[in-house]
Amino acid sequence: MRILVTGAAGFIGFHVISSLLAKEYKVVGLDNINDYYDPKLKYARLLELGIGQDNVRDGILISSLKYPRFRFIKSDVVDLATLSNLFQECSFDQVIHLAAQPGARYSIDHPHDFVQSNLVGFVNVLECCRHHTIQHLVYASSSSVYGSNTKVPFHESDRVDHPVSLYAATKKSNELLAHVYSHTFQVPTTGLRFFTVYGPWGRPDMAPMLFADAMLTSKPIKVFNNGELERDFTYVDDIVEGVVRVLDRAPNEDSRNPFYRILNIGNSKPVRLMDFIAVLEKELGCEAVKEFLPMQSGDVKVTYADSNCINNLTEYKPKVSIEEGIRSYVSWYKKYFAVNV
User: Fold this and answer.
1) b (16+ CB within 10 A) / e for 215-230
2) Is residue 65 part of a domain?
3) Measured on CA atoms in the order 46, 102, 191, 195, is the torsion positive or negative?
4) Is the separation of the CB atoms in 48 and 13 below 8 Å?
5) Distance CA 3, CA 181 (A)
6) Which of 144, 137, 161 is nearest to 261 (CA)?
7) Please, are residues 77 and 56 in contact by the beta-carbon 8 Å criterion?
8) Is 129 part of a structural domain of the chain?
9) What is the C-alpha to C-alpha distance for residues 46 and 94, in angstroms, rounded to an integer?
10) Rounded CA gap, 151 and 279, in Å?
């Protein structure tokens, strides 16, 4: 089985590829390695996969020095010509599309980045899947599509017509575009609405690293909505397990919605932000200086996944508690940043 993973140098992409290689799939990873956050972290992830920074060249497919079944190309999904050539050369069976411009708050001031990567790039992936008869496209949507919904837990059948950030709007647009390609061209697609993924190798703009950086330097952490927030924190290994299980279960013409599927993928156990901070304080061995702030534009008060659909399809059940997950994250953080506390 030949699989393309876009966003290969990203947080979830790195972990997905690691899991696929352990299962002996043949994998090609693609990433543009942009500077939304420090590319050093992206290159460090790639190095774990046997791809050295000195060997990376734009548009050139290179082989891993660690995994014979892994190759990588530095390119952007917005570049349709390179993407089309890659599909032609590699004859992929399945695609896991994780490349996207992230950050609900970042989207407020950088709208064009999101339109290019999350809309133009996604259409390019759909077009390549259409013309190369891909068996299954699994792509990253987001819990942010639920926007201002107040009924919890969030279910896939809930209306998602009120996004509160441009990022959320692009992810909802991805679902609509996928539906068109599934309906019109019979491209089997599954959109996964990820819920607050965290764990080792996580992004610097996410709460675990933002908080840990601040706490270890005695700087205040920003606690929005005065701490009255809940998040369905889902450990990255649990997310990856769900992604890989879904991959071989493509929707078909006999599905309730032929060739098209949307699934929540979350822990289904929301954690209060203040409880999350308390666990992080315990593992880091220091107390956070908290700066309580009002609700921030583009944010939501609670995320909470109803994961029955993915459970029924794949027997997916998250296993890692917030205490275990944060302990693992802090262990990685200390090692990666050479922190002695």
Assistant:
1) bbeeeebebbeeeebb
2) yes
3) positive
4) no
5) 20
6) 137
7) no
8) yes
9) 21
10) 27
Out of 25, 167, 260, 316, the active site residue is 167
Structure tokens at 96: 């896991």
pLDDT, one tens digit per residue, over 21-77 is 999 899 999 999 999 999 999 999 999 999 999 999 999 999 999 999 999 999 999
97: containing domain = 2-195+234-266+303-314
Active site residue 67: no
Q: Answer whether residue 339 is part of any domain.
A: no
Say how many domains are in the chain.
Answer: 1
Is residue 186 classed as helix, strand or coil in its secondary structure? coil
The whole-angstrom separation of Cα 46 and Cα 33 is 10
Give the type of residue at 55.
N
Percent of the chain with pLDDT over 90: 90
What is d(CA 89, CA 305) in angstroms, rounded to the nearest whole number? 39
Asked if residue 298 is part of any domain, the answer here is: no
Instruction: Say whether pLDDT at 341 is over 70.
Output: no
Looking at the chain, the whole-number percentage of residues with pLDDT higher than 70 is: 100
Amino acid 131 reads H
CATH of the domain at 39: 3.40.50.720
Cα(271)–Cα(229) distance, rounded to whole angstroms? 8
Whole-number Å distance between alpha carbons of 33 and 118: 15
Q: Is-cis flag, bond preceding 153, omega within 30?
A: yes
Query: Do 97 and 118 form a contact (C-beta atoms < 8 A)?
Result: no
- Interhelix angle 207-215/322-336, rounded to 10 degrees, is 60
Task: Please give the model's pTM, rounded to 2 decimal places.
Answer: 0.96
